[in-house]
UniProtKB/TrEMBL annotation:
InterPro entries: Ser/Thr_deHydtase_PyrdxlP-BS (IPR000634), Thr_synth_N (IPR029144), Thr_synth_N_sf (IPR037158), Thr_synthase-like (IPR004450), Threonine_Synthase (IPR051166), TrpB-like_PALP (IPR001926), TrpB-like_PALP_sf (IPR036052). Pathway: Amino-acid biosynthesis; L-threonine biosynthesis; L-threonine from L-aspartate: step 5/5. The keyword Ion transport does not apply. SUPFAM superfamilies: Tryptophan synthase beta subunit-like PLP-dependent enzymes. Residues 2-79 form the Threonine synthase N-terminal domain. Keywords: Amino-acid biosynthesis, Lyase, Pyridoxal phosphate, Threonine biosynthesis. It comes from the Bacteria. It comes from Aromatoleum anaerobium. It catalyses: O-phospho-L-homoserine + H2O = L-threonine + phosphate. Its EC number is 4.2.3.1. This is Threonine synthase.
């Protein structure tokens, strides 16, 4: 499988190169030259596979430069019930992403947050850790990962990469904007290959720094800079798998359809759903849920993509979705405009210069219906009421991001054809957001025993202004 850049760069690298490379040299994002179409026979054969075998079947379509036996060993090592061990009592951890039905066969949670850091990021990041280790060892190379997090990517990456001798992680986070639990998960790690940098800004400032450093070709090559954010295609590829697994869990035959509601920020998770649908998975509807930072909801309602400035970005109680410049949205727009990379490059010229674009009235936006995507947004009051209602009605405690998903799923239920099951992606566990759980339910969320008291551990973090040169200096001094 060869990959192209959304902005038209001439090179056509294969998977292992883009795994290490992250952003394309022209600032675009990598996508497969074409999406593999899954035949009915394949879908039938995949229905009964374990998660690891399903991951192998799907990833083999995208990764053709790792021998099959090695890829199988990587998938087997990654997707185990020991790693994804925090399933709800009664739900089967061996399924890796079990469905927890709120209303049997109608409304369920796709449990994606049973991994070591209690968020869906572990689903892809554990795989990335093993892929990096494999490729770097085979090539005799090392990598310095530069990432940005609004709360969950950082800890998932650090847990996946800690102690790996060929990898260093430099993780930028927005100072004071994440929950106490999220901060403790990252900053309490004392591993020598992990560096946490809190920037005095928002997540988008951190993400801009990552992109600026990655776009400095000389620096990137000299200091072997890699990416673990969902700008890295490997993240999106790994996330495609659980849409298939969720589909098989929610249906009895491949004649049926399913709908997914996805709490969204950077558009990585739902981008994987969009690609699963392009591959032929029978998805009737993809519902995108935002919090108060509703830049994506605005686009799907109006055709206008208007990233907000830091001062207009809200600090909310679903902090991991406090994102106003959604990096993976470029991948979706590439498909929306018929894979016209010139057009994408023009549109993102405006975005990268701090502007917006308006596709309303265009022939492209007229085709938006083909993508089966609708959207809605939530607010603090909405998520608190949803956490309360789900707990009272179903006895299930959900986190603030999943609550945004459930709230929007209810709002958009009318867009789902009758009889089609609707799965809300559970993107984090409530233990990460105790303050809002207390507000909603007047009680503490449960947390795994092994994570008790992490807030009391000593923390190691560097405070910095959102300054590209300062971040580069920090890296140079440590490699
Ligand atoms: C808990 C949680 N929910 C939802 C999201 C949004 O996912 P995405 O950025 O892939 O749209 C994130 C992070 O991005 C997250 O950490
Ligand atoms: N919500 C994310 C933000 C980064 O998203 P990514 O999927 O692009 O890594 C976080 O928790 O850090």
């Amino acid at each position: 499988m060869k990959y192209l850049s959304t902005r038209g760069h001439a090179a056509r690298p294969e998977f292992c190169d883009i795994l290490l490379g992250g952003l394309a040299p022209d600032g675009g994002l990598y996508l497969p030259e074409s999406y593999p179409r899954i035949s009915r026979a394949e879908l039938d054969a995949w229905r009964s596979l374990s998660y690891a075998d399903l991951a192998l079947a799907i990833l083999s379509k995208f990764i053709t430069d790792i021998p099959a036996a090695d890829l199988k060993a990587i998938c087997d090592k990654t997707y185990t019930a020991e790693i994804y061990r925090f399933a709800r009592p009664g739900d089967d951890a061996a399924e890796i992403t079990p469905v927890h039905w709120l209303e049997a066969g109608k409304l369920g949670l796709l449990e994606l947050s049973n991994g070591p850091t209690l968020a869906f990021k572990d689903m892809a990041m554990q795989l990335l850790g093993n892929l990096f280790e494999y490729v770097l060892e085979r090539r005799g190379e090392t990598i310095n990962i530069l990432g940005a997090t609004s709360g969950d990517t950082g800890s998932a990456a650090e847990y996946a990469m800690r102690g790996k001798h060929a990898v260093r992680v430099f993780m930028l986070s927005p100072h004071g904007k994440m929950s106490a639990f999220q901060r403790a998960q990252m900053y309490s790690l004392q591993d020598e290959n992990i560096y946490n940098i809190a920037v005095t800004g928002m997540f988008d400032d951190a993400q801009d720094i990552v992109k600026a450093v990655s776009n400095d070709a000389a620096f990137k090559a000299k200091y072997k800079i890699g990416a673990v954010n969902s700008i890295n295609w490997a993240r999106v590829a790994a996330q495609i798998v659980y849409y298939f697994k969720g589909y098989f869990a929610a249906t009895r035959s491949n004649d049926e359809q399913v709908a997914f509601c996805v709490p969204s920020g950077n558009f990585g998770n739902i981008c994987a759903g969009h690609i699963a649908r392009q591959m032929g998975l029978p998805i009737a509807r993809l519902i995108l849920a935002t919090n108060e930072n509703d830049v994506l909801d605005e686009f799907f309602r109006t055709g206008v993509y208007r990233p907000r400035k830091a001062a207009e970005t809200h600090v909310t109680s679903s902090p991991s979705m406090d994102i106003s410049k959604a990096s993976n949205f470029e991948r979706f727009v590439f498909d929306l405009v018929g894979r016209d990379s010139k057009r994408v490059a023009e549109l993102w010229k405006a975005v990268d210069a701090g502007g917006a674009f308006d596709l309303s009235g265009s022939a492209d936006f007229a085709r938006i219906g083909d993508f089966a995507l609708v959207s809605g947004c939530s607010s603090h009051a909405g998520r608190v009421a949803t956490i309360r209602k789900v707990f009272e009605q179903y006895g299930t405690m959900i986190d603030t991001h999943t609550a945004d998903g459930v709230k929007v799923a209810w709002d958009c239920a009318g867009s789902v054809p009758a009889g089609v099951p609707l799965l809300v992606l559970e993107t984090a566990l409530p233990a990460k957001f105790a303050e809002t759980i207390r507000e909603a339910l007047g009680r503490e969320p449960e947390r795994p025993a092994e994570l008790e008291g992490i807030e009391n551990l000593p923390q190691r973090v560097e405070l910095m202004a959102p300054d590209v040169e300062a971040v580069k200096r920090f890296i140079v001094e440590r490699v």
